[in-house]
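Changelog-linked ticket: guanosine-5'-diphosphate example.
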Amino acid sequence: MAGNITFTMIKPDAVADNHIGGITKMIEEGGFRVVAMKKTKLTEERAGKFYEVHKERPFYGDLVKYMSSGPIVAMILEKDNAVEDFRKLIGATNPAQAEEGTIRKKYAKSIEANAVHGSDSDENAQIEGDFYFSADERF
Ligand code: GDP
Ligand code: MG
């Protein structure tokens, strides 16, 4: 059975460009409830750890630098079928392929600076949420 929790980050470019409100509005209007939320900045070491699954991919070094280049906004989100529905709401990794009406279509600048992260499985949603939030930060 699909879980009801996913995890997202608003990435450094989108935060720097003042799109926290616009993106959060699309998330809430998409039927997601914000369970936990914080603005924070990853060190390169923490970003490297978060994206460890990608460490063999050619873009890993650039991605770690980018994700630690400025503050991000991390959120745990709740909705039925959260992981799959959120992947639909954010759109394709490459904004050139993202569908109309998706967050990445509206806010992504490039395949790297693509505005938001979204968990790819229930298991990773738990791991990623736990990476940022303690139990007393979730409501
Ligand atoms: P996602 O699940 O849609 O975010 O995509 P992936 O898990 O495949 O990749 C993680 C993140 O790495 C993406 O969101 C992008 O920020 C970045 N990324 C993915 N593919 C590329 C690429 O080909 N080049 C660069 N520079 N960054 C990439
Ligand atoms: Mg991914």
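Closing comment: Example verified and attached. The longest strand covers residues 33-40. Strands lie at 5-10, 33-40, 72-78, 116-118.
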